[in-house]
Amino acid sequence: MGTAPTLKAINAGLVKRAAVPGSKTKTKAAVLRVHRAKRSTVKATTILLLALACAAADYPEAQILNGVLQVKLLLPDAQNGYYRGTRFDWSGAISSLQFKDHEYFGKWFDRYDPRIHDAIMGPVEEFLTNGMGLGYEEAKAGQSFVKIGVGAVRKPAEPAFRQFNTYDITDNGKWTINKTAGLVEFTQELSDTRGYAYIYKKTVRLVPGKPEMVLEHSLRNTGKKPISTSVYEHNFYMLDHQPAGPDFTVRFPFEVHAQANLHGTAEARGKEFTYLKELPDRQSLYTAMDGFSDTPRDYDIRVENRKAGIGVRQTSDRPMAKLVFWSIRTTVCPEAYIDLDAEPGKEVKWRISYEFYTLPQ
């Protein structure tokens, strides 16, 4: 049996025929058939590549349940993890949390790459020391500094720290993940990085039979230098994917004051922060806020959406050190900071709690 000609061979034959005088009509028909064959081949190849890409997009994840909440978490993985940037802690990212068929988190951004600084779904956390990575100021170009929850990253020759940059990672540390039906425990151990080392643990735990989730943290300083840092919760709330606008209200237990000029997009009203109009695409809102005390009692934030009929209450056992608010059309983000200090050999602990609820009809 003869061997079928390859596409390359067909193309070679066409070139020869195209050079023979008096065969233009036949040649055009043959060229058309081959072009169609090429298109079919390209289409088939494209479908195959898309299928492979979809298969490759199966990022490590876990699901936990408690009979009331259904939660999907994205797991840390240096090669295949959904998020591989250097801004946010890699542990505890939640791609979906459902309560009574309502959704609280999700993909709020359009452009995705695992190394984009904010291509992540909340709630997530970032650790900063005076607005920079731990040990950034003392590190020279080419040396490493620390981003807690990420690992050791290389400092390039640059005039200042870039919070939204993705730095080269020199040491991811050692990640250990333990899961049961109602919790996932993440542990990251980072060995000595110019005197800084730690064991960081975060447990995402669902309270049995209740619409409540708790983030329990501990940070043990195993290095030679003291660790002084702040950490904030960037929740990326997406209550039933409702657009940021007047249906949202953010409530506090204190008289809240917005420090920025919001240009008629939102305002603080006593203990509430509300939108005056729906944010259009590509418009953002940002302001620092004050009015809180130095007790954990004021770390009590409620985000509610009247149209969806749902809300979430966020509390902590630590006082707020700083409060800012950021939003675009797809997400509503009060960001509460807390301060942490751990001398060598010491451990610091803190927790963030979430209560999910429906609004009275």
Kindly describe this structure.
There is one protein chain. The strands form 4 sheets. A 10-stranded antiparallel sheet has the order 9-10-11-12-23-20-19-14-17-16, with no helix packed on it. A 6-stranded antiparallel sheet has the order 5-13-22-21-18-15, with no helix packed on it. It is mainly β and 361 residues long. The protein is built from 2 helices and 23 strands. Strand 16 (266-269) and strand 17 form a beta hairpin. Helix 1 (7-18) runs antiparallel to helix 2. The protein folds into 2 domains: 7-56; 61-358, Beta-galactosidase, Chain A, domain 5.
Task: Give a topology summary.
Blueprint: H1 7-18, H2 24-56, E1 61-65, E2 69-74, E3 93-99, E4 102-103, E5 124-128, E6 144-147, E7 151-154, E8 169-171, E9 174-180, E10 183-193, E11 196-206, E12 212-221, E13 227-234, E14 248-251, E15 257-258, E16 266-269, E17 272-275, E18 285-290, E19 300-305, E20 310-316, E21 322-328, E22 331-342, E23 347-358
Antiparallel strand pairs: 1-2, 2-3, 3-4, 5-13, 6-7, 7-8, 9-10, 10-11, 11-12, 12-23, 13-22, 14-17, 14-19, 15-18, 16-17, 18-21, 19-20, 20-23, 21-22
Helix pairs in contact: 1-2
Number of domains: 2
Spatial strand order of the main sheet: 9-10-11-12-23-20-19-14-17-16
Number of strands: 23
What name does CATH use for the topology of the largest domain? Answer: Beta-galactosidase, Chain A, domain 5
Q: Which architecture name of the largest domain does CATH use?
A: Distorted Sandwich
C-alpha-based Rg, rounded: 26 Å
Shape summary: globular
**Number of helices, where a helix is a run of at least 4 consecutive DSSP H or I residues:** 2
Note the main sheet: 10 strands, antiparallel
Query: What is the string of helix and strand elements?
Result: HHEEEEEEEEEEEEEEEEEEEEEEE
What's the CATH C level of the largest domain? Mainly Beta
Strand content: 35-45%
Distance between the termini: 77 Å
Report helical residue fraction: 10-25%
